[in-house]
Amino acid sequence: MSIKLKDIDTKYTGKQTKEEGEKELDKLKKKLELLQHLMYAEGKHSLLVVLQGMDASGKDGLIRNVFTGVNPQGCNVKSFKAPTEIERGHDFMWRIHQCLPSKGMFQVFNRSHYEDILYPTVHKTFDKKEIERRYTVINNFEKHVQDSGTIILKFYLHISREEQHERLQARVDDPTKHWKYNSADQLEAKQWDKYMKTYERIFDKCSKDIPWQIVPADTKWYRNLLIAQKIVDTLEGLKMEYPPAVVAE
Asked: What are the domain boundaries of the chain?
């Protein structure tokens, strides 16, 4: 069954209060810190967290709030913007390969290889044949990466059009947020319906073994809580163990 984003409530917060949710998030962040340490010590797996969403959906804030307690030596963050001239001289996945996590590491993608489907589809910079090829390349790539021991978790931060408008306006009104303002964001916001349709197609065509998690993101604390919970549950499911000490004879 295909996902229809308009049917998913962006403001949903479950039954807990903000206070309850933030207390639970604090517990999860402590668990996440320990799990990352365990993953690093065991050295058998790695974690790739892919974050996608419309402009102002909260990717930066989520990274800051969920991964705040993780040892910086064990977690890297990469933000993907428009390809550079050097990157455009290679296959579109070239820049992604270079940022994959090594064993024991967390890697967070703020935007990702899916930008190379999103923008070309919305703005029609490539023909349909090339877009379809990219879907195939991405699915094969993700399968290979996961088969090699990297857990991939993909989150779409689902905000409403109204919430996006408020957040983009805050970047204009609040002097402390001026650095975030980009006039291009307002132009892209006008393509909202096209982006929603493209995201729905991405969800439909992506590997069913590595599915997208659609996260209601109008409420920041609930967004953070859901994603932290999913990451912790996934890592606990690996049943990782600290390796035994090597005793010299």
From this structure: 37-236
Strand partners for 157: 53, 215
Report the chain's terminal Cα–Cα distance, integer Å.
60
Both tokens assigned to 18: 């903000």
Residue 155 and residue 49 in contact, taking contact as beta carbons nearer than 8 Å: yes
Helix (H) / strand (E) element for 198: namely helix 192-205
Q: What is the DSSP letter of 182?
A: -
- Written as one letter, the residue type at 56 is A
Model confidence pLDDT, tens digit, residues 20-43: 999 999 999 999 999 999 999 999
CB atoms near residue 213 (< 10 Å):
14
CATH, range 37-236:
3.40.50.300
Lookup result for tokens 């493209």: 198
Q: What percent of the chain has pLDDT over 70?
A: 100
Distance from the Cα of residue 147 to its chain's centroid? 20
CA distance 208 to 115: 19
Would you give the DSSP letter of residue 84? P
| pLDDT tens for each residue of 112-167 | 999 999 999 999 999 999 999 999 999 999 999 999 999 999 999 999 999 999 99
Give, for 133, the enclosing helix (H) or strand (E): helix 128-147
- State residue 1's pLDDT score: 59
Determine contact, residues 168/56, Cβ cutoff 8 Å.
yes
